[in-house]
Amino acid sequence: MDSHTETLLNINDLRVYFYTYSGTVRAVDGVDLRVGDSEITGIVGESGSGKSTLAFAVMRLLPLKARIVTGTIIFEGQDLASLSEDNVRHVRGRKISMVFQDPLSFLNPVMKIGDQIAESMKGLQQQEAEERAIDLLQKVGIPRPREITHEYPHQLSGGMRQRVLIAIAMASNPSLLIADEPTTALDVTVQAQILELLKELSKKTKTSIMLITHDLGVIAETCDRVYVMYGGKIMEYGGVTNVFENPLHPYTFALLASALSIQEFKEDLVGIPGEIPNLMDPPAGCRFHPRCPKAKAICAKKEPELEVHEAGHGVRCWLYAQE
User: Fold this and answer.
1) CB-CB contact of 243 with 252 (8 Å)
2) What is the pLDDT of residue 111?
3) How large is the greatest C-alpha to C-alpha distance in the chain, in angstroms?
4) At what angle do helices 158-170 and 126-139 cross, to 10 degrees?
5) Cα atoms in the Cβ-side hemisphere of radius 13 Å centred on 287
6) Cβ(15)–Cβ(185) under 8 Å?
7) What is the pLDDT of residue 56?
8) Residue 261, pLDDT score
9) Measured between alpha carbons, how far is 203 from 40 in angstroms, rounded to an integer?
10) Are 99 and 179 in contact (CB under 8 A)?
11) Which residues contact 248 (CB under 8 A, 6 or more apart)?
């Protein structure tokens, strides 16, 4: 992180476990992460790497079978991990908002769009809330915003519903917006528009954004910094340009190699051999070693620490650590 950038969110040694009948799933297992003021921070990794669980832990919206075992989530001087549910409610939806990947699951089907946006506003009279809802819809690029406030979610396209979710999330002027795969179900044209919208909102409102995705192109297009997550752990982090131009971890290499590019023709898609680890019984040592082409003997025995390799660029790998 830029030394001049203040830290808004500071996660230290966070562990989130799911307690199931079959055993304990270590979904997030010792994560350190920072989000700076007015910064867009990306978290990237394959499905099952723990990205969404991390986001729900920050929001304190974990399912009943999940627990924050250890660690701190410091946001504006408060540890969200240890706050009571009553106190968390004063933060969630006000200072921290979330945009989910499936708008239809999170929009009320029998409630008008304007009313759903107004619900997120506190202390405003009805007329003020209506006008603010119209203004927010206009800011997120929805045509006919006044008419749209009287419509229902099923009357809108997928892209418009996603914009409505962003408008709802921004209604309380949050300091931090968490976007969990916000463009997954959208076509590429609408995806580009949504990403541009997030960048514009961050710039204009000084809102920090934590963007969760499995798409490296989304990270490259949108983020200032990126954390590469695998098996519940951060494997590499740094400025987007540094990580993409000088990847250090073999997993980051593999992700980049498997991505499509319009600048380079690939006859065959390159996949990552093997499967993501079972987090109920993760492999000893480095969690990526069973799939790693550069694995050494120590990789299967001892887990490397996440260490700074150069200013602002860290990696968890025995290729760079002292054995």
Assistant:
1) yes
2) 94
3) 68
4) 130
5) 24
6) no
7) 95
8) 56
9) 10
10) yes
11) 236, 309, 313, 315, 317, 319, 320
- In tens, the pLDDT along 17-73 reads 999 999 999 999 999 999 999 999 999 999 899 999 999 999 999 999 999 999 999
Residue of higher predicted confidence among 146 and 124: 146
- Per-residue DSSP letters for 297-321? GGGGTSPPP-EEEETTEEE--TTTS
Task: Give the Cα separation of 136 and 285 in Å (integer).
Answer: 49
Q: In what order do the strands lie in the sheet with 78-79?
A: 24-36, 7-19, 66-75, 78-79
What 3-state DSSP class applies to 254? helix
Q: What is the pLDDT of residue 3?
A: 46
Give the number of C-alpha atoms closer than 13 A to the C-alpha of residue 196, restricted to the C-beta side: 8
- Residue 238: phi, psi to the nearest 5? 160, 180
Burial grade of 72 (CB within 10 A; 0-12, 13-18, 19 or more):
middle
Alpha-carbon distance of 57 to 50, in angstroms, equals 11
181, 102 contact by CB (below 8 A): no
- CA–CA gap between residue 33 and residue 181 (Å, rounded): 18
- Tokens for 116? 């759903």
Q: In angstroms, rounded to a whole number, what is the distance separating the alpha carbons of residues 237 and 313?
A: 6
Pull the structure tokens for residue 117: 């946006």
CB-based contacts of 164: which residues, under 8 Å, 6+ apart? 103, 107, 113, 116, 117, 137, 140, 142, 148, 153, 156
Question: 7-95+172-315: which CATH topology?
Answer: Rossmann fold (3.40.50)
